[in-house]
Design brief:
The structure is a single chain. The protein is mainly α. It has one domain: Growth Hormone, Chain: A (Up-down Bundle), CATH 1.20.1250. Helices cover 74% and strands 0% of the residues. The termini are close together. This is MFS transporter. InterPro entries: MFS, MFS_dom, MFS_trans_sf, Tet-R_TetA/multi-R_MdtG-like, YfmO-like. It comes from Agromyces allii. Its main location: membrane. It is found in: Cell membrane.
């Protein structure tokens, strides 16, 4: 998912909670009206699909870029590192920006940045240029994703539940379609996915510019301090969750970013493989995670899912010589990752009294460090030790994340409280899957 994430800046409070602690509250009741939305909502939803596609778009073309530009696997994996580092640091300031210039301007600036840097990446003549342009792309995605959900909720008809379903649908489509589109376009040329993204985002920019009107009666959100996310990490619960997420994200991005190399498939084969991964992740994040947290404490879900992910990563290492089995473990890993992404971010939103946009910004900035380090580190481990070594190292890293959650359980008591409002759950799904 090059990883793109965001805090949900200035998201309005949800008026209702889920009945019985499960499901999406008013979402099912509003399903009848989900298709009857203003054009502005469809414009933002379309752009959201494209933005989330960036999570897995470059995955199928990594080997092709390495071959065409005579780059090493480590150099190629830096496409993830530059993107994630900039996204993480940008997340520290997106709520500060959007609370001052408004949602529409933030969305448009983010989209414009993506268009420019995605097109520039497609025109690159060497891997160093692509690495640099991917960094700029990360800035644009941080600005856009951080504002999209709040915008859809504010403009949608049929209530909050209808807006949440629409946003989750956009998120799931983007995660699943990204690798597939990357594989299809990458089968023609490694430049294709970059130009395709630039063109689609340009359409999204025009749609939002024309269709998203500012409500003159809408109250501007209270400006947040630029230092707020850094200060937030002083909270013990948030520090525990951010530390666990840092090591967990190493496992996430070893599975996503390193796996194209040992698989040995062409761009199309990799596209279909990670399409399956994306579908699995989307299904469990949107449907399975809420069912689990409705039946057991969130920390217990983490105690089960984190070791399970470590087992999947170790199994991938043992299956390194069998591409078919490696594909199976990648897809199974997607199932586990979907649960973990959502539950971890739900915990972040419930762990403190901090403004949710501030808490998720701080959390995302720390966890992206793990995502930024993992891809090139995995390539170097494979070169220096063996092809399966990155998976074993990733499994160990996820076990460290498990240990952090277990040892920090006293600080996390609050996250096992009653079910949160439906909008909070949608924020958790959005922020978690955008990683």
């Amino acid at each position: 998912m090059s990883a793109q994430t965001g805090s949900i800046a200035a998201a309005p409070a949800a008026p209702a909670t889920r009945g019985g602690g499960s499901g999406h509250g008013g979402g099912h009741a509003a399903s009848a009206s989900i298709l009857k939305q203003p054009k502005a909502v469809w414009a933002v939803a379309f752009a959201s699909v494209i933005a989330f596609m960036g999570i897995g778009l470059v995955d199928p073309i990594l080997p092709a870029i390495a071959e065409s530009l005579q780059a090493t696997p480590t150099e190629t994996e830096m496409l993830f590192t530059s993107y994630l580092l900039v996204t993480g640091f940008a997340m520290l300031g997106t709520s500060w920006i959007s609370s001052r210039i408004g949602a529409k301007k933030t969305l448009l600036i983010g989209l414009a940045i993506i268009v420019v840097f995605a097109a520039a990446a497609g025109l690159s003549q060497n891997v160093e240029e692509i690495i640099g342009f991917r960094a700029g792309w990360g800035l644009g995605n941080a600005l856009f994703i951080s504002t999209a959900l709040a915008t859809i909720v504010g403009a949608a008809s049929g209530g909050t539940g209808s807006a949440i379903i629409l946003y989750e649908a956009a998120l799931g489509l983007g995660i699943a379609i990204g690798p597939l589109l990357g594989g299809l376009l990458g089968h023609l040329s490694w430049r294709g996915p970059f130009f395709g993204t630039a063109a689609l985002m340009a359409i999204g920019f025009i749609a939002i510019l024309v269709l998203l009107k500012r409500d003159p009666d809408a109250a501007r959100p209270e400006p947040t301090r630029l230092s707020a996310p850094i200060r937030a990490l002083r909270q013990p619960a948030l520090a525990v969750l951010a530390g666990a997420a840092l090591f967990y994200n190493i496992g996430f991005f070893v599975l996503l970013a390193y796996s194209p190399f040992p698989l040995g498939f062409d761009a199309l084969g990799l596209g279909f493989t990670f399409f399956g991964w994306g579908v699995a992740l989307a299904i469990t994040s949107v449907f399975v995670a809420p069912l689990l947290t409705a039946r057991m404490p969130r920390t217990r879900v983490l105690w089960i899912a984190l070791p399970l992910l470590a087992v999947v990563l170790a199994a991938a290492g043992l299956s390194i010589s069998s591409p078919a089995w490696l594909v199976v473990w990648i897809v199974v890993g997607g199932l586990v990752l979907g649960v973990l992404n959502t539950v971890l971010t739900e915990c972040v939103m419930e762990a403190t009294d901090l403004q949710r946009s501030v808490a998720s910004s701080a959390y995302s900035a720390v966890r992206f460090l793990g995502g930024a380090v993992a891809p090139p580190a995995a390539a170097e481990l494979a070169r220096l030790i063996s092809p399966e070594a990155p998976y074993y190292a990733a499994a160990g890293s996820v076990l460290i994340a498990t240990l952090i959650v277990v040892l920090g359980r006293r600080a996390l008591r609050r996250v096992d409280g009653p079910a949160e409002p439906a909008l909070v759950e949608a924020e958790a799904i959005a922020v978690g899957d955008a990683a």
